[in-house]
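Lab notes, practical 5.
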Amino acid sequence: MGKITFYDGVKEIGGTKILLEISKKKFFLDFGMNYKKRNFFFEEFLNPRVANGIGDLFFLGLIPKIKGLYRKDLVKMLSSEGTNDLGSGNEENYADGIFLSHAHFDHSGYISFIREEIPIYTSKITESLLRAMEEVSVTKFETSIFKFIRRPAVGSWKTPGYYGEHKAIHITPEMNFGNVKVFTYPVDHSVPGAHGFVFTGNEGSIVYTGDLRLHGKNKKDTENFMVSASKFNPDILIIEGTNLRGKDTNREFWTEEKVYQKAGEVMKKTSGLIFADFSIRDVNRFMTFYILSKEIGRKFVITMKDAYLIHSMNKAGMDVPDITDENIYVYIKKRKSGTYAEKDYSEKWIKEILSMKPKVVKAKDIRENENAFVFVMRYWDLQELVDLRPQKGSKYIHSSSEAHTEEQEIDEWRMNNWLKLFNLYPKEHIHASGHARKEDLFKIVYTINPKIIIPVHTEHPEEYLKEFGDKVKIVNEGATITF
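Output from the prediction step:
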């Protein structure tokens, strides 16, 4: 008899941690950070204590209580404090692997705490993205997924054993684990490398969608996944439902083509500097604004961090221009001394970018010729407005999701204060969701046609119940179902 245990990510969006036990194998389907639960206890200046290892997360209930699952260094550290609920670190591996659907931290973030001996099965693109993000970011205890600092941290980076590392195993279309077969399919999402999975074993077949949509440029991938999954006559479909009911249910649901059309209209009318605010991991959105910039005769400006991520995507085989492209400029921020001195840009990843000799631009260059550029900016780059000082006639295009939480609403309020001061308010909101709309989710279910439907990654699982009746099982956190 097989089992599925839902440790997190039900009746809410994000934090997915699902354990599938099938034909004597145990696989986690994602192991993400639950932002909503985390925000009950932590915020920007109140974070889990790194010096306490995994202790804060365990006692606050942010990770499941499972022996043999977490890194031995963290478990031994907790055990030394007299808490043995996670074992001693000497237990056998609890799981045979983690199937990571995509790179978003609400699905991947807490893999950082998983035992090194437990393999991570994911796409090459997902691994490349996560590694690049780790390189350009300040090391974070919770999201250093592949390369992490062992705890307690003794010595320095030169000390043997100071760092540990999770190694990814790249998924193939069909994978065999004894009596278990896993079939992997690319799906369309707002981040590249996303996959859905079909698991088959003696007890039956299970389909897991991860996050997906049917209105993006790669919708054919999702369509192929739907049709292929249906051929297994699946017993259970575990499906996301982010957009089952949105904050504004009457708002038009935009496609990437609609974003291209509307953004183009705004950009063509703009006489000053154009800002485009979107996640650099959204390759479709990157290409939309890159192409539009070329069409209106403007140079496309990205930050050094963005340049490193784009370069990493290019190396991973993705169809994106590299940073030496004739229409791409790399923005050099003031750092450290504030004088653009060479010593201010000494990090390995920055040296790698600059060694490629991309076209670079500073704030003064943009300020003196602002109608020649499209600048890719996000919330964390707003300080650059002080140096850029855009004039009237400039435009800020916000091409990311709207605020959904109290914390996000505060961030948006703060962003608007910046935009008002620098002639950029009101901003233009032009966005297409990374998640399938309600009618498309139902289409996916009807096509796959499972015996049982289990909604995850949604605040409104009852919408599936209304449409599909008794086929739907709405589960609570910690629930186990058998099949």
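Observations recorded by the TA: The chain has 15 helices and 22 strands. The two ends are 6 Å apart (CA to CA).
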